[in-house]
Every structure is written in C-alpha cells, then in structure tokens.
C-alpha cells in the first residue's frame, strides 16, 4: 500500500495475499462464513414464524468481510458497527445462543432483550455495538481509538459502516479528528451498493468510497469484499498501519447483500437477475469452497461434516432463543441511571 | 477557602479531577491552548499536557461521539460545548447513544461522560448565544441534567458529575460566571468576592447532584428556580417583602421532589421560574408533578415566570428576561389568589 499505489488503482494485491494463510485458516474462514450464513437463514425463518419481531437486517452475502477482517485483528482490538451486526458478533466469537436470544427479545440475549437485533455489546469480546443510527458508530469508533492512543495500549479499533452511512456528516468529522491525532482506527466501508432502497449511484457523487479520505490525508483501498482471502490480506496491512501509529486507514469492501435491507423489504429496487448473478459468480462461501476442493484442503465429506455441525449449532441457538424466558418486567425500568 | 469566580471554580474542579485521576481528560472548541472561550480551562493544558487537555475541531457531533467512545474504553472525558446553543449537531449522539448505552447493554456499560456547556442570556448574545435548552435534555431518559447557581456549587457539582458513572449535561449559566446577577441590569455588576457562595474550598469536595437546596427559608410561598433565576428569585422576594422560601433545584434530572413537595405542602403556594421559553419548559414538568403530589395543600394556582415563546432577542433582552418586576407580579398574584 505505497503512496504511489494509493494514487493509482488502490486495489488490494492478489499475489501478495495467499502466502500468509494456511489450510487450517482457510477452513476456519469457511466455517465462520457458513455459521453466519446458516445463522442468518435461521433468523429469517424465526422472523417468518413471528418469533423475531421488529427490525432484522440479515448479513447474507457479506460474510467474507467480517470473517476476513476478524482474522486480521488481535486480542483486545475493538469492533464497532451499525445495525447489520449479527455477522460481526458471530465472527468475534460471541455465542450464537446469546445473539439469537437477543433477536427474540429474551432474557438469555446479550442485552437481556433490551437491545434487540441492532443493539448488542460484549465487554468480553470488545464488541461495542450494534448501533441503529446510520453513521453514529463511526464517530464512536473514533473515540474508542482515541482512548487507545491516550492509554497507549497498542490496540486498534475497526469501525464498520455502509455505503449509506458514508454520506453522513459525522463520518467526515471523524476522519478529520482521526487523522489530526493519528488515531489507530481502520474504517471498513461495507459497500453493498444499496443504502436501504437507494443505490449508491443515486445517492453519492463520488462512488469510489475508498477515496473519501483523500482530503484528510487518509489512505484508502478498494478490496474485493466477496473474497475472504483478499479481505484478510488487506485487513492485515491496514491493521498494521493503524497499530504502527500511522493513523487511520480506509478499506472499501465491495460486497453485496442477497436479502432485502430488512425483513420487510421486498427489494424491488433491483432485479432478480442482478442478485442471481452475484450469487452465481461471486458467492463468498461457494468461492472458498471451490478453492478448498481444488487445492484439496478438504474433501466433500469433511465439508459436509462442517455443515452438519454448524446446522446443529444454529438449531441449538434457535431452541435456546425460543425457550429462554422473557426478561423480568423489572428490566423495563433498570439500567437507566446508575 | 478562597473567594473566586464561577470560572475559577470550574477550573479548580477540573484541576482537582485531573490531578486525582489520569483517565479524566478535557476537550472542546478552543478548550486547549486558548483555555476556553470564557477561560474555564485556562492553564490546564500547560499543567496536564496536550494529550489530556486539547482543542477539538468545530464538530459538536463528533466531540460528543468521541467522548462516548472514550468513556466506553476506560476514560472519563469532560467535553465542552462552547455554547449550549451549539449542542444540537450533537443532539442525536446524546439521545441515541449517550443516554441509552447503559440500558441497551443491560448495565454492562456505564457512560461517565460530562458535557459542560454555558447557557442562558444576559450578555446580549442574541438568539444563538443565549439559549437555555435544558428542557430538551430533561426529556431524555438516561442522562442527568444539572445547573449550578454559584461557584461553590459549580465546583462541587462538577466534581460529582465527572465522578458519576452516568452521563451528565452540566449547564453553566454564563451570566453568573463573574458574579451573581439578581435580574437588574442597571445596577453595577456584583462580584463573587462579595457573595458567600463565592467561597470555594480548596481541593476535592462534592455537592450532591441529587439534592436541591433551600437558599432562603420562608412560609408564605415557594419559589422554584435554578441557575441565574435563583438570584432573581431571592432578590425579588426581598423587594416584595414576602416570606418566600426559595429553592435552588441544582439538579433538574433527577429533580429533588422530596424537598419541593415538603416546601409546597408547607406554604401552599408556588411560583416556578426559568429563563427558557414557557411552553413545554421544565416548569411544566415541575408543576405537573407538584399538582400530583401536593394538590390538597395548594391554596392557589401555580404560576410560571419564564422567557417568552420567542427566540432570545438581541434588542429588548431585558424585556425577554424574566426579571424582578415580572417575578414580583407573580408573587403578588399567587398570594392574592
């Protein structure tokens, strides 16, 4: 990611990436992406059955982004994101049971049912939410990074946001402060090309979002967000950059969500052909599966066993989420002021 | 003990806090090198360094958001919003994030953020430098809202606010920065050196941010006020020659209903003052609660004396400001009813 490169195409180098990834890691990427996919499919089912109410934004299609980025950070590094947050939590190793039970609004959920789909946290896994206001988390993540610099704790914050959030004013307030103080933050833009129902072309004057930091002196790179290995490689470099005290860096993940914005969105703003083409040509899980088979990292039987195991894990999470009791009515009034 | 201005008292509070706890840091527009537009953070950057006392860009939204992120990650930030009128770009962060993170994490996170901001009129600031926007913030579950009326309380309440694990909006009535103001703009300005509440202890102490203070005992009526209006209330009661009990609320959320109800149950009459506009002002909340709790003790309708339902004007500032004449008229009315 030389200065020269950032001025040219800013695409993560494919040749440089594969070296650092061993077969076990590749299998673990596969497993994590599949967990998110199956978890989200199950969430969609529970929603359809009326067991999850309200807003539920599925991560299906974007799995490579969080799995690749997660593999690039170290213990104690922080993660913060917007409302499409289930995948981030699963990639961080938060319990599927606790996440699913939050979706169903039960006591066993990460926020005892008080947060819901968009608002979960884990002090143990350094996950700082889950934020339902578009773009608000970008400035919060910058504050987390400020505290890292202040405490000199060598930690980096990943602040995720979407193409929609990238037009919010406070994103640019954050960019300015982050570069002004060289804060250890990686801005991960998950560009799935639709801000709810509005395509990026209809909402953004500069659609190459990795360029958005240019006027602040923040380097930015475009990454194939459907390729977990490309994400991993770009993530390693970006995190290294931030941890070295060089300040913020932007990674624009070109990705795609297969489902609607939320469960109630029929996605009429794009064609079925468009969605099908992405699914066929660049599904992150299928692409990695093909690589695993081609390179004989694992066979069909082994992958089937993984799938079975994950289905069992997700099914267990769903059972837990449905069986967990509703929170005590006293929870309504607690945790407002200390 | 030393007599000092409210500016010095606030500065002293920050000094005590930063000396004691290295997770406390202070930042805002012009709040570092320049020492704050009113001088509240003067000398702190020299003493504690650029990392702990620093200038922020003019971005109220990100200033507040940064403080939230910092507090999530082990710090105890004090963010200054240069004028309360400027706070609105950050209002979303206060409502949607700051006030709710504790609730939405089921208590796993606390949010020890203090937002200091000068409020109120009386300095010819016009409509964007004179507002008293406290009522907006009292409608947000999950934050505390306080407003001291003197240097002694300002220091003790600021220390208590920063040491509290809840978010606190700390309003500083800027007309009181340099001296008590009793509502008469034509008298020579008084200095805090001539006022007993200008007496500020050295070192660490706190003033309870859950308690109102009875600043003048009385039996004929109760006057509720906070910030600048405390001084207007006391002087108006004196001029009217009535035996009024004046309560300085100090904390708006959570307000000390016990002290208020005890007084109103005793006097049976009540006048509520604030500088902010009348409709949906904090007085409306106080009066609603008083009628619920003290209905059978009331001898007369409760009266509000407030700013008008207009923007804060530049000209006619003293016609807008709920000064002594209007307060005395209300006192008379509530006693005659």
Write a structural description.
- The complex is a heterodimer of chains A (338) and B (337).
- Chain A has 338 residues and is an alpha/beta fold.
- Chain A has one domain (52-321): Rossmann fold (3-Layer(aba) Sandwich).
- Chain A contains 12 helices and 7 strands.
- Chain A has helices spanning 3-7, 23-48, 63-70, 86-91, 96-103, 136-151, 169-180, 200-203, 228-243, 272-282, 284-294, 300-323, and strands at 78-80, 157-162, 185-191, 194-195, 198-199, 220-224, 249-254.
- In chain A, the strands form 2 sheets. Chain A has a 5-stranded parallel beta sheet, with helices on both faces. Chain A has a two-stranded antiparallel sheet with strand order 4-5.
- The longest helix of chain A has 26 residues, at 23-48.
- Chain A is globular, with a radius of gyration of 19 Å.
- The N and C termini of chain A lie far apart (46 Å).
- Residues 1-9 and 13-18 of chain A have low confidence and may be disordered.
- Chain B has 337 residues and is α/β, with parallel strands linked by helices.
- Chain B folds into 2 domains: 2-200, Thiamin diphosphate (ThDP)-binding fold, Pyr/PP domains (Rossmann fold), CATH 3.40.50; 213-336, 3-Layer(aba) Sandwich (Rossmann fold).
- Helices cover 35% and strands 18% of the residues of chain B.
- In chain B, strand 10, helix 8 (228-240) and strand 11 (244-248) form a beta-alpha-beta unit.
- Chain B is globular and about 60 Å long.
- At the A-B interface, helix 6 and helix 7 of A face helix 3, helix 4 and helix 5 of B.
